[in-house]
Amino acid sequence: MSELKLLGIAGSLRTRSTNKGLLRAAQSLLPADTVLELADLSDIPFYNADVTTPPPSVQRVFSQLAQADGLLLACPEYNYSMAPALKNILDWASREPDNRLLAGKAVAIMGAGGGMGTSRAQYHLRQVCVFLDLHPLNKPEFFANAFTGGFDDQGNLIDETLREALRNQLQALAVWVRQLQK
Fold this sequence. Notes:
It is an enzyme of class 1 (oxidoreductase). The protein is an alpha/beta fold.
């Protein structure tokens, strides 16, 4: 069985983000024969259709997307919807010819936030996935409350129940990626 390459993208730009913490935790919980590279969105400019050649920072993420077999999106919730940094990189990637960077790829969505754990933002992101021809993993879903002790002050996931739920989502994502590759 060949190695699966996943790309993790956090919609938050904060260093101590709990959503970045979820991706860091995911790197230690991956199934065998799976690697997770993390994208850095901190220097990605706003999408602008007048810019005909994507800047180097965007091209860097495009290269990561092109090499990825599947995606793991850590989706914060801002004002009942997804964070602009996550939507922005998806907008950039969607403008590439034939949607070659996203179309047909498996994606798992997770998030840490307030009381409902980014559920509203995740449902908005699923709507975007339809247009982009991404194939979201339906179950298990992953929602974490970022304010009830599951994360340390650096944004790292420390709750064992949440770690196990994340492990389960990663295992299901690996199966989903391989299923879609057949």
